[in-house]
Amino acid sequence: MTAGSLSAIIPTIGRPHALENLLRSLAAQSQRPDDVIVADASRGDEVRRVIEDEQWPAQGLRVRRIAVDEPNAVGQRRAAIGASDAEYLLMLDDDVVLERTCVQALVDAIHSAPDVVAVTADFNNQTWAGPTTLWRWYLRWLHGVTTGEWQGRVIGPLLRFGYSPSPAGLVPMEWLGAGNSLIRRTAYDQVGGFSEFFLHRTTINEDVDLGLKLRRAGRILLSPDARLAHMHAPEGRVSARLAAEDDLYNRFLILRHTQGLSAGRALGLVATFFLVETASNLGGCLRRFRCNGFGARLSGRLLALRRILAAPPSRSRH
Fold it and tell me: Which range has the worst mean pLDDT, 119-128, 200-209, 256-265?
């Protein structure tokens, strides 16, 4: 491991324009990463041409491509991390754009104390989502959590919250985002890295799972001085049904294996999530007189429940 070095870890699939914008923002950083490792599961040559463009070395940015056969965010990140010998891992989605001082702010924050194992960046083009009315009732009556006390926390069926409004300085987080965080490699290795039990290529909730594991090794912080934009590029996304299935099923796996809950307790929590989240979605439909994707999300959640009830998985290797 090279002391003080930093690798940017980027999984991508079919987003050449978004990836090019991200690489431009990395090249413009006040502190550039030592290398950028892109795990590419795209078909065709567009993304490869972006990665191999001569403009990056001309701007002092070292970009490497690793070809991955199957699109899977966890598998792609694992492949890129395996190719790095850096002390710090900068985890990025392929559709984010960093402000010029973002990397420097993350590095400063992770050096703020020896027990800080990871730092997550704030957003400049969106706010952190808060709980809906039904979830506020749940938080208050079942967990005794009142307004604002949920910020930065992971509660119950893996409800996770950021900070809104943005804090004035470094604040604690109980989770991190795999698309906007800096992690100490020693801590990542200590907790076993990303878990391997996720169902499909979407691997939804893999970052919450990793954050819960990293907190066993030290503290996670949010740095409001490290800012980036998440552009939510539409290319390469899975269907709403598949995303909803993975979301619910992966919650069960994390509660069961990473959190160590019994199968019954984990099932009870995901059933609670199913009921409250579906009711919240339906309420939103009625308020907006528009229900785009509601049926698909409901179908996906029902498939996840059937999968859990039919064959509860055995303990998986992390």
Answer: 200-209
Read off the tokens for 73: 């965010």
Looking at residue 291, its pLDDT comes to: 74
Q: Which residues contact 188 (CB under 8 A, 6 or more apart)?
A: 81, 89, 210, 214
Dihedral of CA 54/56/57/62: which sign? negative
Contact 183, 109 (CB under 8 A): no
Residue 217 identity (one-letter amino acid): A
Q: List C-alpha distances in Å: 193 to 37, 104, 162, 201, 284.
A: 17, 24, 22, 17, 37
DSSP assignment of 174-211: S---TTEEEEEHHHHHHTTSS-S---STT-TTHHHHHH
Q: Mean pLDDT across the stretch 3-24?
A: 95
Structure tokens of 54? 């001569």
CA pair distance 285, 287, nearest whole angstrom: 5
114 pLDDT higher than 70: yes
In angstroms, the CA 19 to CA 96 distance is: 8
The answer to whether 220 and 174 are in contact (CB under 8 A) is yes
Nearest to 13 by CA among 69, 96, 55: 69
Task: Give me the pLDDT at residue 196, please.
Answer: 86
Strand partners, 35: 7
* Lookup: tokens for 152: 């930065």
- For 296, the enclosing helix (H) or strand (E) is helix 294-310
Nearest to 107 by CA among 4, 24, 187: 4
Residue 188 tokens read as 């990542």
8 A C-beta contact, residue 124 and residue 223: no
Closest CA to 313 of 222, 249, 259, 246: 249
